[in-house]
Write a structure and sequence with these properties.
The structure is a homodimer. The first copy, chain A, is of the alpha/beta class. Helices cover 40% and strands 19% of the residues of chain A. Chain A has 17 helices and 19 strands. In chain A, strand 6 (120-124) and strand 7 form a beta hairpin. Chains A, B: It catalyses: deamido-NAD(+) + L-glutamine + ATP + H2O = L-glutamate + AMP + diphosphate + NAD(+) + H(+).
Chain lengths: 521, 521
């Protein structure tokens, strides 16, 4: 069977940075061509840098992207790379809003899919290669029929990360291969943009759905694979409505075959932790920051955020601040200091008492308002420091605290980004323990202090709440699954707990959208 | 022709308050029956209290609403009102999410529209009355055909307010009447829920599209009308698939005809101001507050918010606070005091210097961070006061400041609700002038100080910006209409202004969703 050397480049683009994203395409195309690739693919939305569903790009950006695509084809040609066909996903404006379509760049020209139904089929070295975008993995009927006779379906995707989503995507790709009776290659973005992260994990399966090659998760890079593909069976017009012939003659056998990579799969907690690191790294770099500020209160949330931040950009650029008052426990300050010692982040202390006293002297507050005031003052001081020093302020509140409107969130929720916005407290604890175990297994210092882990079940707060395992299960059922109070009681939650927690969640519901964004999981 | 006395009750429901909303139906049905109404209608989502598109009610609330509807029918019967047919819109869960449908309550029973296509037609006093919901004003084909022979289409609507939307709705109703060849009555919600307000404006048009009766905007009440309608022409099975016969005999001629009301129409600014008042009143009452706290900085935003708050709940429950520092101008404080004198709101002053000094002593801040710190401290103090005293804190920032991320928004944006979130600065000024003129015309004290109006064009801010007229036009084009930079320059905006303003808007874009909700206009 004819062979084809395919390069799937899972790159980390930046929304709106057309020149920078075009540079990435040129650089990685050269890298792939140097390694003998005969077909080079990039993910969806390569030039705009984020899929249409995530960003709703403005009309002028769509126009600029169209021009940039033409320039990119010309530039590849002028830099001697025009002979290697390049496929990348593009966001284009249509009547009913922006949509993705695959584009083929070859010898200085651009071929995009016509508006009519069905994939573009490219004949390359005698093999028919059909081009699709992520959404086409679910197309059927006429669209699927148009693949008949194709040797390979090449999908340029941008699949936002979701917990366990990689396995579901693999199954979808395998199903598609078996239904179409051809090999399927799927290239994905990696990196993050605002609340979304993309986990790479590009892959190739054969016509039976068996995995031939699979790229690492959350890493930029090129997955090379030599594919044995059936020769095209139809005449030069080929299958489908949109057929382009680049070359009929079979490719020369590769001098030295490449070993197709099969990256190790991350386990569940490793994957979630990697997503958090990816999100913080992207949020920092893509907003022009080189350092991070984080308030350390000795608790599990801020310790985990600090560990993630250090893993994302390095300890020397992570600045921790404690804001002690006369009532702050020595243990909390010791935990914060221990976090700094373990991770190497830069720690300082700003005593809050003078500010707090000035406020409470001027105001006659209730206990709850006093608690909230202190939390807000912490946030205000952190924001002022971050602004003065030009650092990204990370909020340390987690999903549990945000969902019930825990008083501390007024301070912990101050920031440009909240890595744990979508992480319940019990998951935060599991992630911290996993991260410590991973460090220990590598002979490194675990970043989260032991005392922070053992004290993580303590429930501060102004009124009694159930243990976090119960609280998180209850919030998941009530907020995420929409279960009503009687159903919750039926599931075994104590009635008075249901009443108290749903009341808190209802009261906090209206402010939930006002918290900083955080990586979706 | 047979006559029918119709009562359109435009009521102010509360989301989730099934018993309270049912009480409203009973009270207004009795009121209508006492006045001889033979058909009584209520808006969409009467029991749940907010249309499905606005709230996405949970499954358990939909279940509870279905039970409440059955109980309501039984209660009307047991209270002697079962003989008067009552039509109200209900939100019901369907396969593809919650949807509105009209329900008919009569003699203790509930009739809802079957899932199949087409309106329910009720024969009442020999007239065929078709029942529809707001979305049905746009149905055509089979649905419209099913109306043939009906004397009246009765629409139970919930149309969120949009500037000028009342006129568009009138035209839609008139078009529908002419297309269906029958009279159309349309009853709407009034009042507010979160960011939405509903403007009432219930109306009846004849088969030629001429207005027979129209209710006031933004007022709860009952629109009564005696309608002359053609007798049903088909047999007892009637037109359409879903036909119910209540009575074939013509209604007795009314002893004393009612004069159909035609409420005065508000002009554009009056309508927008009324929407703001409606939104603040609803936000206060429906969240269990009886008083409002607002920070007064002497500017147009806080003066307008104070005027709206006083109009919404009365001056004695509106508490203004100034937060002077050593650098606050005497004029700003005088403006705030003048606002209090003119409106009668309760004013107090909390000097900010001790708090501010405590912060700046502890931190070494840049000028911009210092400005932001001061703004955030103002917000923090206001929030603490509002919490301690149990008042609703209104944010005073306007759409212009929020859109460019004006430093002052860090303080002005603190609050549970931002009445001016969707009001550009120039519109705020026009609204304030309109409100003053309306007061003068009534011989009342205009609420907004003259000096606040004349100084409203001053542009504070850390860097030079164009006059507000230009700034707002530019932001409207860039943010609301999606025009690109080159298009903006093409429209005549100076290039350096375009560059500066779009940069500010882009930088503020990621935090815009984090501001408090405000009435949509």
């Amino acid at each position: 069977m004819p062979a084809l050397r395919l390069a799937l480049n899972q790159i980390d683009t930046t929304f709106g940075d057309l020149p920078g994203n075009a540079d990435l395409v040129v650089r990685w195309t050269r890298h792939a061509a140097d390694q003998g690739a005969q077909l080079v693919a990039f993910p969806d939305a390569t030039l705009i840098g984020s899929p249409a569903e995530a960003q709703q790009p403005r009309p002028w950006l769509l126009d600029a992207s169209r021009s940039a695509l033409v320039q990119l084809a010309e530039r590849l040609e002028s830099e001697g790379l025009g002979g290697t066909p390049v496929v990348l996903g593009c966001v284009e404006g249509r009547g009913d809003g922006p949509a993705s379509r695959p584009a083929l760049l070859h010898q200085g020209h651009v071929l995009t899919r016509p508006a009519t139904h069905g994939p573009v089929v490219v004949r390359l070295h005698g093999v028919d290669v059909a081009l699709g975008v992520g959404g086409d993995l679910q197309q059927d009927g006429k669209w699927l029929h148009a693949l008949s006779g194709a040797g390979l379906l090449l999908v340029t995707g941008a699949f936002p990360y979701a917990t366990g989503g990689g396995d579901a995507r693999l199954e979808r790709v395998r199903d598609r291969a078996r239904a179409a009776g051809c090999a399927v290659a799927c290239v994905n973005l990696t990196g993050g943009q605002d609340e979304r992260v993309f986990d790479g994990d590009s892959l190739v399966v054969d016509a039976k759905g068996e995995v031939l090659a699979r790229a690492p998760q959350f890493e930029e890079g090129c997955l090379l694979a030599d594919l044995d593909l059936p020769p095209a069976t139809s005449g030069p017009d080929g299958p489908g409505d949109h057929h382009v012939v680049i070359s009929e003659e079979a490719a020369p056998a590769p001098a030295e075959p490449v070993a197709a990579g099969r990256a190790r799969r991350m386990d569940e907690l490793e994957e979630v932790y990697a997503a958090l690191v990816c999100g913080v790294r992207a949020q920092t770099a893509k907003n022009g920051f080189t350092s991070i500020l984080v308030g350390l209160d000795g608790g599990i949330g801020s310790a985990l955020v600090a560990a993630v931040a250090v893993d994302a950009i390095g300890a020397e650029d992570v600045h921790g601040v404690t804001l002690p008052t006369s009532e702050t426990s020595g243990q909390a300050l010791e935990n914060a200091a221990e976090t700094a010692r373990r991770t190497g982040l830069v720690l300082r202390s700003v005593p809050l008492d003078p500010v707090l006293d000035a406020c409470t002297d001027a105001l006659d507050l209730t206990d709850l308002a006093d608690l909230n005031l202190q939390a807000r003052l912490c946030g205000t001081v952190l924001a002022a420091l971050a602004e003065t020093e030009g650092r990204l302020l990370l909020a340390t509140s987690d999903r549990t605290g945000l969902t019930i409107g825990h008083p501390s969130v007024h301070g912990q929720a101050m920031g440009a980004f909240a890595p744990l916005r979508h992480v319940y407290r019990t998951t935060a604890l599991r992630l911290a323990k996993w991260r410590n175990a991973a460090a220990a297994a590598r002979g490194e210092v675990p970043p989260v202090p032991e005392r922070t882990l053992t004290d993580a079940d303590d429930q501060p707060g102004a009124e009694p709440l159930p243990p976090y395992e119960v609280l998180d299960a209850l919030l998941t059922a009530y907020v995420d699954e929409g279960a009503g109070e009687s159903e919750l009681v039926g599931r075994g939650f104590p009635p008075e707990t249901v009443a108290r927690v749903t009341r808190l969640a209802d009261a906090a519901a209206s402010t939930r959208h006002r918290h900083p964004p955080g990586t979706r999981l």
